[in-house]
Amino acid sequence: MQITLVLLNFLALVVVVTIFKSNKKRKILILAVIALVVFSHQFVLVQKTTARLTATAYVTANYYHKGLKFEQLEWLGPYGAYGVRFKDENGDIMGVQVISKKVPIVVIYDSLDQGP
């Protein structure tokens, strides 16, 4: 989780540097895109799509060899996270939790990772 936050901070820094180095039209375009992304995450459909894409990218990066396929996504209110379930070729279920309702981009639980 700390690595993700570091990457997000780095990405924000890159965006800020890019904005200040660009000409006026480019600055306006970059700020408009950022505003659109932030505003669009107010809609549940965008939040669910972001959670699914985040979980799929995580599973693909960590468990590509298992051939996991997306099965279900649901909001887990008590945990404040989206639960995303995948199934492998043998029918075994695997799940991850993606936090932040507004911008779900951090995987906090992985049922296959039994580390500390």
Automatic annotation (TrEMBL):
Question: At the top level of its lineage, which domain of life is listed?
Answer: Bacteria
The transmembrane segments are 28-46
Which keywords annotate this record? Membrane, Transmembrane, Transmembrane helix
- What is this protein's record name? Inner membrane protein
Instruction: Give the Pfam families listed for this entry.
Output: Imp-YgjV
